[in-house]
Amino acid sequence: MIKLNAKELRTTPVDEEAAAAIKKNPITIILDNVLDTYNVGSIFRLADAVAAEKVILCGQTLTPPNSRIKKASINTTGWVNWEYEKNTIDAVKKLKKQGVNIVAVEQDPRSKPFNKVSYQFPVGIVVGNETTGVAKDVLDAADMIVELPMWGVNKSLNVMVSLGIVLYEITENF
Q: What InterPro entries does its record include (predicted)?
């Protein structure tokens, strides 16, 4: 297994054989209209860090190739499997037909504390738009909704930070 630092990732061409050889965890990350390219790129770095199977970019989420996404991802967009789906709900329905358990990270009356639930694999984690969150139809289709506690005056965390916390909780089960 190769391990590249940030400089090497930025300058090393993607080795498709090496990328395919990385053992992937049964995790799919679904971005529901995430608009900030810094968040998108950072989520690619996070997907690489947890060896997620893939990232699904939905709706208005920008896709690679994009210089701002590439910069924030430090070129992990070439190492992480990804696809685009026009509608998040369509992506969720396809995954559910494949037996993937869908977990939305969102503040909602139905949500449970992220660290007090049992995650079932394979799992799809949905995170939403920086302003409006995960769409209602996607929340309704999710198998579970989880949220992070907020004890200060701020109502929420950055989408990538929230996703990172939940993903590392999930990987504790491996």
A: Alpha/beta_knot_MTases (IPR029028), rRNA_MeTrfase_TrmH (IPR004441), SpoU_MeTrfase (IPR001537), tRNA_m1G_MTases_N (IPR029026)
Domain borders along the chain are 19-171
Element (H, E) at 19: helix 16-21
Q: Are strands 123-128 and 101-105 parallel, antiparallel or unpaired?
A: parallel
Closest CA to 163 of 78, 41, 46, 37: 46
Which CATH superfamily does the domain covering 19-171 fall into?
A: SPOUT methyltransferase, trefoil knot domain (3.40.1280.10)
Instruction: Tell me the two tokens of residue 93.
Output: 């329905």
- The secondary structure of residue 2, as a DSSP letter, is -
pTM over 0.85, yes/no: yes
- What digits encode the pLDDT tens for the residues 133-149? 999 999 999 999 999 99
